[in-house]
Known about the structure:
Elements: E1 32-36, H1 37-45, E2 51-56, H2 66-77, E3 85-90, E4 96-98, E5 111-117, H3 119-129, E6 139-144, E7 157-161, H4 179-188, H5 197-200, E8 213-215, H6 216-226, H7 229-240, E9 244-249, E10 252-257, H8 264-286, E11 288-293, H9 316-324, H10 333-344, H11 347-356, H12 359-362, H13 367-379, H14 393-401, H15 408-420, H16 427-438, H17 460-471, H18 481-497, H19 501-514, H20 521-531, H21 541-546, H22 571-584, H23 593-597, H24 599-602, E12 619-623, H25 634-637, H26 644-654, E13 660-664, H27 665-671, H28 676-682, H29 686-695, H30 703-708, H31 722-746, H32 750-754
Helix pairs in contact: 2-3, 3-6, 4-27, 6-7, 7-8, 10-13, 13-15, 13-17, 16-17, 17-19, 18-20, 19-20, 26-31
Amino acid sequence: MLNTYADEPNQTHKAVPMPPKHTTFFTNGNTIQVLALPQWLDMAAGLHPTVGVDLPMIQRGFVWKPKQIIELWDSLLSGMPIGALMVSEMQPDEQRVALTPHGKDTSPATQRLGLVDGQQRTLAMLMGWQAFTASAAQHRLWVDLADEPAPGHLVRLRISTRHQPFGYQRTEPNRKLSLDERRRSREAFAAVAAQDLLAQAQPHPAGAKHSLPLDFGKLVQEWRALQNPAAWKAQVWKALQSVKTFAMEDDKAVLKLQWDALEQAQKDAIQQRLDKLATGLQRVFNAQIPLVRVAPELFSPDTDNDHESQNAIEPPLARLFQRVGSNATPLLDGDYIYSVLKHLMPEVHGMVQNLHKDSKVAGFLTATDLVMSALRLAAVQWKDVADHDNPSKEDFHRMVMRPKNADATQRQKDMQALLGSEGAHTLRGYFDTVHANLKYRPDIANDPGLPPLMLPYLGRPLVQVLLRLAQAGFLQNPVNEASRAQALRLVLWWMRWVWDKPKASRIAFQVISKSTEHTNLDLRIAQAIVQEGTGMAMQPPTAIAELGLHQADTAALIGKERFATPENDSEKNRHIRSFYRHWWQHWSHQHPMLLWLQRDYVNSLAAEPLAGMDEDTPYDFDHILPSAHWAGDWRIVGSTGAAEDFRYARSVLGNSIGNIRVWDASHNRSDGDASPKEKLAKSGDQDQRHQWLKNSAIDGPHQAHWEACSPSDPKAKTNWDRPRALAFQRAVVLRAYALYEQLYRDAGFAQWECA
């Protein structure tokens, strides 16, 4: 039997003898070694005296979601098997990557195992094996004994992360908390420094009737130290009584002791869950896990195969990795390419890491996207190689590893030169150039640059186009102002009106490659994209006004039909209406363009965003008139005298860019459901109110409409009549059009009309 468990909580963990001190971990021809699970986790954590665990260069990073981590630990606590791990015996001089950033390395003679398959499971287990340490950990595992377990689970487990320090939805662990839950959590932990949130904050209850979360790793280590279930349970019971958790008092979020408020029935339920957890931990400490040996010859290219085949250069380990390492989380082509490159060219790992340490790089692309971008840019100079915005494994093989009419070694050197070298004609140099051209310059009035928080929204297809513009010499450092203006226009148009961004990126590369001069290059790229049906042509504000789409003085409340094309209207007008509909984007309240429209204010929000991260941003996309006023059940809203047509128009108005602003998350939480009139009143004197309007991108003359759509009685926010509804419509319509005029003016889109 490979896995054995003991169900009795009164059994203490018995130490399993260490593996013999051999230079070879697998002895006597064995290909399977069965270890006690605690022994394996000590090895992985860098706590074992003779054996350590690393990652072969081919491995990718940690990709598991919170739900996967929770389910793995519930399986362990429930006594379920979690499968075998695959390891290799690594030589002292073999290139490798540390499994954990805090892993303790021992002497050079220590036996090192390379974890070929089982990285995700092992790292997930380590999250609950040791008490949380703020310096290294990116995840934290919690057990909440006061909360009912999820269906089919032994106890309630929660995850918090560096980017989501207040956890995730309790019933949907992969979904972020709501904006209100995050605001309230920040309020409760207002005294905690931002960089210490993961160490000091706790998960938001997120719907739990009672919540007393404890650090799971700390409980595990206490179990290990005491080796006495009764003493351990007594210690946990005492700890529960001193836990301060999230609570609401007088509409304010605070941290409060909860134990004394619990009824006896709830304390009895906690005791039962504590008993179940003790039983589960006993199972964990008595569990065994099999390690399967991976032969060293799998690390070398299979040179016995056909010279032209992919197998001729791809190490068998890569195929194994692809087959067994992607069962839970799909292995994307980019992950595979990066992994193979790291294996065959180990120095690539360090190159990418060094590049990604630079905030000017990390704000644009993930580490994997860096490699894919280097491949694409390097391929520009390779003859007879088609452009691939997202090359497949087969494309990668043909381009780099076994090209028909080129030297593979030289192509690999080309990629290395882009990734690891300094200078203008390297990936670092191109990023420096792109950043210099895009960055917002607050000392210049109405500068069209992008604030840092906007960079992660660009996406790899567009970023690669910008890097290509730098590579082609169109973008320069020091900055050429004319080229900078063109690049910024292209970016802003692309973000809202390009549909198929990968296809648009391929089209842009073609235009850039064929261009012999730089005049109107931004427009020529946009026109080519529009011609291929991948984007929409920019429209002047006058064209929108001619169709009355800016009209606010109407007695009718208009919903989605405001963008409908009348019968027998022209194709041109149809395009204009569709174009402006996408400006409103009323189907979502997420409007990243506002980060640019409010760039002076947004630039003041301190943050270093990272592309591809599930971040708790320092800002919210905030409804100026909160959704609590208009998004409720129509049986509530409609019973107070509003016109029936407001029923169908309210979400179109409410989620329009005209009713959304970017707002500091900490300030937003304090506003709650306050109306625009209340928010203005809180702003203080006239100068402060003027600043509030400016920061919110609201024109001063429109202030009256925002005050008029506020309820006369703050306690009756869902009371609507026709005058209030019409005022709301006027405020939204006028602001949406004013924002578009601002975009068109400040970005210089009139240049596209004149060309």
